[in-house]
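User: two proteins, same treatment. go.

Assistant:
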Amino acid sequence: MKNMLIHGGKKLSGTVVIGGAKNSTVALIPAAILSRTPVILESVPVIQDVTNLMAILDEMNVSSTFADCVLRIDPSHIQNVPLPSGKIKSLRASYYFMGALLGRFGRAVVGLPGGDDIGPRPIDQHIKGFEALGATVTNDHGAISITAPKEGLHGARIFFDISSVGATINVILAAVTAHGHTVIENAAKEPEIIDLATYLNNMGAVIRGAGTDTIRIEGVAQLAAHNAHTIIPDRIEAGTYLAMAAAVGDGVNVKNIISEHLDAFLAKLEEMGVVMDVGEDSIFVYPSGDLKMVQVKTLPYPGFATDLQQPITPLMLKAHGEGIIIDTLYPKRVRHIPELVRMGADITIENDVIIVHHADHLEGCEVAAEEIRAGACLMIAGLMAEGDTTITKAENILRGYDRVIMKLRNLGADVELIDEAAPAEQALRAEN
């Protein structure tokens, strides 16, 4: 277990460079096993999820090396083994191995996914897509077994009941090597879908319409990577640092940004009164004056991202009036609220609606990061607070934020990561 210790109350200034998108990376790594040749990914974020996915690749006899944000994956000697292990349980995005293994081998056995506890995220749309392609799906003691017919997967028209990023990605991974033509309707439109399609098309896939609600795929026999792929910048990391800069910044430049990916978030910051200079690939955030309270409603892309409702919450505490946050995607994503209240926030939950009031003062204390974005929220609140804030379960923050301690320190934050010794180790230290 790791704790993040923040000595709050210090203004941040300088430049922070955003890393590659976590939500692209966790799909691109499983997708690499579709290639018959070695794969090179550039601008890979240094996060725990990458380490976890590399460990899963290793179980399949897929070698990988990671240095200087470049990940090299060699699937030449891949073995199709069941993946019901603990590593799968700890990482929700590991379910992309379902589509990737099905597309590569026609069979996949993958443990039911874990990840952050932010409410129900069923995989029924994934299963619906696999079955439409001709696969048989069964649940065998907590592991999903997916088998293509003897003649292989076939193209199909698939209409998702809800616009699901995970299901869209998984069906793309299975369909790129299926026989014939596949049409995915009500597909997710997130930038990470476009990134995946670009990556696969450069391997020889034929995918059209990524970024729209209708994606068309012509199946090909096999894929092979020939060029390195550079991952798009992480819009959620960017939004987190923009909110942080507005909350505790004394002039912060956030670089390596695709601002179009943040249109809904930037509009909300502007509505609050945050002053920014939006450049070609960077945004400079000026020190904040008086801020106005806003209403936030999360929606599928291009709407306000659910992953940014928590990072914007501490900034809203600085605004005057009453603010409302409604998460239409994950209404139970509120585990950060009791922690903020402990720090002195005037914030309540009524019927899954978060109601925010101005808080003149936050006081550092011990809080828990129950999931990635809750951790980001508490990190910003800790920087705003007087005194020391200890964030337990900080490994959740490390799962999603690239070299976060280094980046915060470069901005002038007084922050450190502390390993919490296991009880047996603590006892041993005491004896010595």
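Protein 2:
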Amino acid sequence: MSKLIVRAGEFTFDARFEEQLAPKTVAAFRKAMPFESQAIHVRWSGEGVWMPLGDLDFGVSYENHTSYPAPGQIILYPGGISETEILLAYGGVHFASKMGQLAGNHFITLTSGLENLTAFGKTVLWKGAQNIRFEEI
């Protein structure tokens, strides 16, 4: 069994895929791995960072979707009203865009390093974009 690692800025988090709850999203994301991007701070959603992905199409629709991811939960918005994006909550989040409330597929949950989650979010807020990499090892 492989292990999912999220390297975000200077922090490393263990994570798990939510394969039972979002199997199509997990399968589509796995095809793109290792996945690298830059995390920037959200504008409308609260305490979270996001990876804007433009018109990237993962070929999925809604499954296990939420507008209120908990800290350590990662959601994929498959696009539509707003651009495709991935969001990582580090505190209270009400997922939204300039068009209004959105919902994304909760497909990854961080399982270790959570004590560093707020520090990562505040680093992005105060120091700007941070590299982020998702990989299975």
